Amino acid sequence: MLKKILTGAAIAALAVGLGACSSTRPADGGGAAAGGSGDCNVGIAMPTRSLERWINDGEQLQKKLTDAGCTVDLQYADNKTDQQISQIQNQISGGAKILVIAAIDGSTLGPVLQEAKAQNATVIAYDRLINGSENVDYYATFDNYKVGTLQGQFIEEQLGLKTGAGPFNLEPFAGSPDDNNAKFFFAGAWDVLQPYIEKGQLVVPSGKSPANDDAWASIGIQGWASDKAQSEMDNRLSSFYGDGKKVNVVLSPNDSLAIGIEASLKSAGYTAGAEYPLITGQDADKANVKAILDGTQAMTVWKDTRALGDRVFTMIEQIKDGQTVEVNDEKTYDNGKKVVPSYLLTPEVVVKDDVQTKLIDSGFLKASDVGL
Length: 372
Known about the structure:
This protein has twelve helices and 14 strands. α3 runs parallel beside α11 (305-320), α6 (144-159) runs parallel beside α7 (180-199) and α8 packs across α9 (255-267). The protein has 372 residues and is α/β, with parallel strands linked by helices. Mean pLDDT is 91; it is low at 1-24 and 28-37. The protein has a six-stranded parallel sheet with strand order 3-2-4-5-6-13, sandwiched between helices. β4, α5 (110-118) and β5 (122-126) form a beta-alpha-beta unit. It has helices at residues 8-15, 30-34, 52-67, 81-93, 110-118, 144-159, 180-199, 226-240, 255-267, 286-294, 305-320, 355-360, and strands spanning 23-26, 41-46, 71-76, 98-101, 122-126, 138-142, 168-172, 202-203, 249-251, 278-279, 300-302, 324-327, 342-345, 348-350.
C-alpha cells in the first residue's frame, strides 16, 4: 500500500483536520535574509498553458502579488523541462528573491535550485513536489492522497462494492510519470479499489492493473495529455471489448485525461445514460463540468486553486516580512534530500447536483462557462 509514501502517523494526522493543527516555522533562505525589508521580487514558473488550471493558477497569483506592490515574472514552459530551467535561471538573474515553481519534472531542478540558493532566494514548490534537492524551502499543495481516496470512495459507493455488488469492468489510468503528485493520486484510489479487484468485484479486462501502488507509472499518461489518454482508451476498447463487452467504470486521475477518455468512448458508440461508464476526474475544468452536467462524467475532485494561491501569497508575505511561515505538515513529503515543510489544503468532490452551489455560487466558475 502507501506505507513507502506516507507513514501511518502522517495519514492519521491528515485525517484530523489540516487547518486546526497548523504549526509555524521560521522563514529561512531568502526570507530570513529579507528580515522584513519589504522586498518582493517573485518569479512564478508554471508548467504549461495547455491545461486551464495552470493558466488560472498563474494569473491569479500574479494579480494578487502585483496588487500588493510586488515585482512579478510569470512564465509558462510548454511542458518542456529545459525551457522551464532556462526561465528559472532568467528569473534568478533578474533578481527574484522568491521562486514559486510548479515543476514539469521535479527531479531535474537540483542544479538550478543550487543557483537560486547561491542568490539567497527562497523556493516554494507549488502543487508539485520538487525532488532530489535540499534547496526546496516550502511546499504548498492539496492533500493529494486524499484526492485519490475521494475518487476511489466515489466508485466504491456508486457501484455498491461494500455490499458485494459486481463484477464490474474497470479501466484504471494514472497521471504523468514525471509528476510527483501522480503517485499520490493513484495510491489514494488504488488503496480503496485494489481489494475489490482481489475479490473479483472489479475486473480489468485490459490487464492494465498495477500489482501495487509502487507500479502506478506502468499505466501513467505522459504529460497528462488528453490525446494520449484517448489513444490509450481506443487501444483498450478495440483490443479487449469485443462481442458486446462494455466498460463500466474508468478511474481517471484528472480532468484532462477524462476528456480524452470520454472522446474515445463517444467514438466507440457510448452515449450518456444508465449504461454509460462511471468516470472520475479532478480540477473542475469548464469542459469537464459541462460533461458532468451532460452525464458523460460522473464527478470531479475540486481543488479550489484560489485557496492555494491565497496560501502561497500568505507564505510570500511572511517570507518577505521576515515572519514565521505557517505550515501544517512536516512529516509527509520527503523529496529524497529532506522532508519539505508543507501546507496542505483539503479537496472535495463535485457531482452534478453540486455544480451550482459549489462552483458557481462560490465564483469559481460563471454559469455561462458551463452552459447554465
